Amino acid sequence: MAPRGMSRAMPRYALKVEYHGGPFVGWQRQTDQPSVQGAVEVALAQLEPGEHTIAAAGRTDAGVHALAQVAHCDLGKVWDPFRLSEALNYHLKPLPIAIVGCAEVNEEWHARFSAQERRYFFRLLMRRAPATHEQGLVWRVKHQLDVSVMREGAAYLIGNHDFTTFRSSICQAQSPVKTLDVITIDAVEGQSGPELQFQLRARSFLHNQVRSIVGTLERVGAGAWDPEDVKSALEACDRAACGPVCPPHGLYLAGVGYPENPFA
User: Which pTM was predicted?
Assistant: First the structure.
């Protein structure tokens, strides 16, 4: 049953989307280049002919993956959410995109503007040998890293700050001021060797903020930076003060939080 007050003329559906970012130029639709948004819109056109435009909680870059991207679409008829997800998955084959959740939502609900937080996950594999099974899914570094000093450096980034240093020069956000609520770094033994796994949570992120932070913290773990250098870089509010920006393929959009979980 649709929630009270929902318009039945143009029902809106929330989609939880999982994808491997390797084959795509990113989430956002681009002319003559494969994108996740474009692929889902083409699949929707197989179900209801015509042009479709979907909105997402965030625009992931080329090579970045998603465990739980959230988007919404408006359709011309009422669909059972399970049948809609099954039909979309059929038409998305063989692309590495899956609709893993689907729910009918109110017409005021918006995948981006209704979101209260975004969660990102990053995998860093520490081994000298090239990654094989994990190729394209982790950032491999050849040396071991000291996770304790990386945590010290990361602590300076928690809270409300001007993150200009950790912001791409092409970032379109109106303000560089963001509140980073959580950053954790866990050492785990992965299938292919020792990994460091980063969890970051904020209401929203700047373009390349997570990759800039992880790349900088890697320099701390390698001994090239002291933990206090992260604080100095942050306070510099200067992109030139940032450490290296790590590659995209270890990064995952892990989840999006809303006042009420539409997929519950």
Answer: 0.93
Catalytic positions, written as ranges: 61
Burial (CB < 10 A; 0-12, 13-18, 19+), residue 73, is: buried
Instruction: Assess whether 159 and 209 both reside in one domain.
Output: yes
Rounded Cα gap, residues 253 and 122, in angstroms: 9
Q: What is the residue range of 159's domain?
A: 117-255
pLDDT single digits (tens) 177-211? 999 999 999 999 999 999 999 999 999 999 999 99
Residue 36 sits in a domain of what CATH number? 3.30.70.580
| DSSP character at residue 21 | -
- Give the end of a domain, one of 84, 114, 144: 114
- Give the number of residues written for the chain: 264
- Say if CB 66 and CB 253 are below 8 A apart: yes
Instruction: State how many domains the chain has.
Output: 2
Partners of residue 14 on adjacent β-strands: 72, 103
Looking at the structure, tell me whether residues 71 and 193 fall in a common domain.
Answer: no
**Same domain flag for 177 and 244:** yes
CB 99 within 8 A of CB 15: yes
Concatenate the DSSP letters of all residues of 47-107 into one string: HS-S----EES--PBTT-EEEEEEEEEE-SS---HHHHHHHHHHHHTTSSEEEEEEEEE-T
Classify residue 88: in a domain, yes or no.
Answer: yes
Q: What residues are paired with 126 via a beta bridge?
A: 141
Q: Which residue has the tokens 């359709």?
A: 75
Cross-strand pairs, 13: 73, 104
